[in-house]
Amino acid sequence: MLAALLLPSLLAGGTDAPPDAVSLIEPKVLYRVNEASATRAPWLQANGWRILRSPSRTFIYRVKGPAAALAAAEAFAFGARALISTDATGEAAFAPMLDFLKSLPATEAAPAADFGVIDDKTDVSAELLNLLTRSNLLYKIERMPDPALNINVRVGTPEYPLAEAKNPGTMAHKIRAQLGDDNRSLRIYGSETVVARLLTGSGGARVMLLNYSGRPVLGMRVRVKGVYAKAELRAFGLDAAKASDWTTDATGTEFTVPELRAFAVIDLN
Amino acid sequence: MFLQLAAAPALLGAEETPSYKIVTPFHAAAEHPYRGQVSQVHSETVIDPATEHVDKPSVDRMLSAGMTSLTGQKSERDAWASFFNAIDVVGIKVNCSGAPVMCATPEVVGAVVRNLMAVGVKATNIYIYERFLDQLTSVHYDRHVPQGVNIFAIETPRGSLLNYDPKVYVETSFFGEDDTRSCMARLVTERCTKIVNLPNAKEHQAAGVTGCLKNMAYGDYSNVARSHMREKTNTLSFIGTLASVEPLRSKVVLNVMDGIRGVWHGGPFSEAKKYRFYPKTMMFGTDPIAMDRLLLEMIEAKRKAEGAPSLFNRSMDLIDRAPDAHLDFHKNTFIREPGHIEYAAKQFDMGEYDLAKIKIAHVEA
After folding, report:
1. Is pLDDT above 80 for B13?
2. Which pLDDT does position A1 carry in this prediction?
3. What letters, b where the CB count within 10 A reaches 16 and e where it falls short, cover B36-60?
4. Are A190 and A178 found together in one domain?
5. Full domain range(s) for residue A228
6. ipTM of predicted complex
7. Would an 8 Å CB–CB cutoff place A96 in contact with chain B?
8. pLDDT tens digits for range B200-232
9. Is A168 an 8 Å CB contact of chain B?
10. CATH number of the domain that B321 lies in?
11. Which residue of B has its CA nearest to A221?
12. Which of A168, A183, A198 is the last residue in one of the domains?
């Protein structure tokens, strides 16, 4: 999976970004402590859906400080060709993340998808893709419905009316219900600030976890569909991290990531 | 791995009961004795309501009277020895959500520890525990127990799942939340052989009251606040479901309800002193349903005396979601679910709900 091996690079000072580069926002969490909401869930400012929507484009992050490291990890996890424009603090944060990304073994696994979304390039679909990504519902963007998938979402059809899609959270819940949690290829438990990616193939799988919160997530539980025998956990900023509380059942494999800082990769065999 | 689908039927006026998946490798131990029996001990001298000073000798007398009355043993030591022995690792599940004032009274916790040690339980095998460190440490239980006794917060820091057992959990979706699991504390599944459940006598804005069941359920699991995010909560079915799961259900061998102080409105916290009251009472038993049933009576009677709406009043007219609404006893943040006690009784047979069948031993200490 070539795209997953793309490494982000720094945009040298004084250098202009390519004119056709797509600007991305700073990846982070916006905590809405004074704002009434149904779930009190923090708002993730994430770019995965933008990258998936335009996989052949070049992207640019303009971020300062430690956000450069998370930007690099996000670009890597979603297979983006990305440039990062940052300050000196950001460069210092970027360097160890780049080293970490370079240390990861190559994989031929490809992004897993539990359903498809036909992207009509509208703002409504954009926000739906955003919510689906943040909800860790694994989709692939398609031009035509894929008969291999049980669910193909096309906004504006009787099953997925435009009016309903204008509340993307509700639409995401509907798709999740149609899919059924037990049928999802990947579940995570223990944080609302983590976006997960799953690559599968060749008898193995790679789980990538992006933590947008800026503080460690402790004891995150991961469930992957399929039975695997072992996991190798590589956690950014931590030496000798190991997955714990390993369990398998008829349909899935579960393990705990004891500490997740900005990024972690778990290879399952 | 034991897996149970608890898709409960609609009961007690609940509009729709969520589907629960219970995952645990543990099985039930022997049934607890003293079903439907509660020893209710009163002491006029145990607290001075004006200063809230607690009289330690009165606490000691209450514990002694309560335990001997419950068990029928002649001595306090024999009463405790009928539950605990030297090889036990004992958790004391305190409630500190209204700390530092409204919590398991330190003098009570100290007395429980002394009685456990008197029957041979090692100090290092005793764990005074609660979910959150800031609440727990604010009480300073360490000043009331011997050195070596563990004072342990499960969720340190808040949000950490490291001290929860990922192999023992209740899974349900209330509103489409991402994390659908509530995991039991490892202290319960892996370390303790027995637990003393030590709730307070409090009203609860969502659950109606917070007694034995609530202290077991929401005090021993992760990710429970999701049950009461909206006016209509899922506390009716969630509390009993959590409390019924093994090994928690079997390991809680003794309930001591601390009603020296109480909260009749605005619970489980105690921001307004005007809503605290002083029943000067403690209850002892093994039956969490029977004890919570009596707690319902106690809180409902106090609310009636104060002119507050009944715990069972489900009118939306009472609901006010403003942050300080709970400071007005005419309002409430949620529709209360005091029916969670009857639900647990009927759904999981966790004890005796029928007042006519509950045997109360009234003792004055």
Report:
1. no
2. 41
3. bbbbbbbbeebbeeeeeebbbebbb
4. no
5. 186-268
6. 0.92
7. no
8. 999 999 999 999 999 999 999 999 999 998 899
9. no
10. 3.40.50
11. B166
12. A183
